[in-house]
Automatic annotation (TrEMBL):
Role, per record: Catalyzes the condensation of ATP and 5-phosphoribose 1-diphosphate to form N'-(5'-phosphoribosyl)-ATP (PR-ATP). Has a crucial role in the pathway because the rate of histidine biosynthesis seems to be controlled primarily by regulation of HisG enzymatic activity.
Gene behind the chain: hisG
Coiled coil: none
Annotated ranges, domain ATP phosphoribosyltransferase catalytic: 48-196
Signal peptide: none
Protein name in UniProt: ATP phosphoribosyltransferase
Pathway named in the protein's UniProt entry: Amino-acid biosynthesis; L-histidine biosynthesis; L-histidine from 5-phospho-alpha-D-ribose 1-diphosphate: step 1/9
Free-text note on domains in this protein's UniProt record: Lacks the C-terminal regulatory region which is replaced by HisZ.
Subunit structure: Heteromultimer composed of HisG and HisZ subunits.
Species per Swiss-Prot/TrEMBL record: Exiguobacterium mexicanum
Location in the cell: Cytoplasm
Family to which the UniProt record says this protein belongs: Belongs to the ATP phosphoribosyltransferase family. Short subfamily.
Enzyme class: transferase
The keyword Nucleotide-binding is annotated on this UniProt entry: yes
C-alpha cells in the first residue's frame, strides 16, 4: 500500500500514532529520502497541499493531511478517519487595536475560499487577498486589516502583537483514501481504518 504523509508537524504526530495503534511505521530519522519502503508499504512524504492530489490521482492509496487543506480545497477524496492529532483552529486574527471605519475590510489568508465563505455567512463584504507566505505580515504592513489563518498555540500572534478575534472552526488531521483504492484493496484498507479509528471507539 502507498501512503502519502504531509511533511513536518503532522508527519511526526502521524508516526507516533501509527506506532501506538500497531501499524507499520517509517524510520524516525529518514534523512532526506522522500519515499521509504517498510514491510511492503511505501511511504511518500510530500507537502501538505499535495497529499490529497496523490490520493485523488491514484499515486497513493491513502494519505494523512490536515483538515484545513481539505476544507479549503474540497477535493474528491474520502475522509475516512478523524485522527487525534494535528489539532488547532482556523481563526480571524488581527492587531489588538482594531480600526473602526466604513471602508471594505481587507482580509489576507492562505485559505481564501474559507475566508470568503466565513465572511459571506456573516453578510460582511470584504476583499480577500490570497497569500502564500507569512500572513501575519499583512496587517503589520498595511496590506490587510486582519487575517484568516491556522492558530495552534498563539505564540506567533503574540510575537507580532496580534490577537485572535474569533474561531471559525477547529481542525485536526484526517486519514483519506479514494473510491478506487477502497475498491481495489478493501480488506487491508478497512483494517487500517479500524486501527486508526481505535481511539474514537473506546
Amino acid at each position: 500500500m502507498k501512503v502519502a504523509i504531509a511533511k513536518g508537524r503532522i508527519e511526526k504526530a502521524a508516526r507516533d500514532y501509527f506506532e501506538q495503534v500497531g501499524l507499520t511505521v517509517w524510520p524516525e530519522k529518514r534523512g532526506r529520502e522522500l519515499t521509504v519502503e517498510v514491510d511492503g508499504h511505501e511511504f511518500i512524504f510530500v507537502k501538505g497541499d499535495d497529499v490529497y492530489k496523490y490520493v485523488m490521482h491514484g499515486a497513493a492509496d491513502v494519505g494523512v493531511v490536515g483538515g484545513d487543506i481539505l476544507r479549503e480545497k474540497t477535493p474528491g477524496v474520502l475522509e475516512v478517519v478523524d485522527l487525534p492529532f494535528g489539532r488547532c483552529r482556523m481563526a480571524v486574527c488581527g492587531p489588538k487595536e482594531r480600526k473602526n471605519g466604513t471602508k471594505k475590510l481587507k482580509v489576507a489568508s492562505k485559505y481564501p475560499n474559507i475566508a470568503i465563505s466565513h465572511f459571506a455567512s456573516k453578510r460582511q463584504n470584504v476583499e480577500v487577498i490570497a497569500l502564500n507566505g507569512s500572513v501575519e505580515l499583512a496587517p503589520l504592513t498595511g496590506l490587510a486589516d486582519c487575517i484568516v489563518d491556522i492558530v495552534e498555540t498563539g505564540a506567533t500572534l503574540r510575537a507580532n502583537d496580534l490577537e485572535e478575534y474569533e474561531t471559525i472552526f477547529t481542525v485536526n488531521a484526517k486519514f483519506i483514501t479514494s473510491e478506487a483504492a477502497l475498491a481495489n484493496n478493501p480488506d487491508e484498507l478497512k483494517a487500517w481504518i479500524r486501527r486508526l479509528g481505535k481511539e474514537d471507539s473506546q
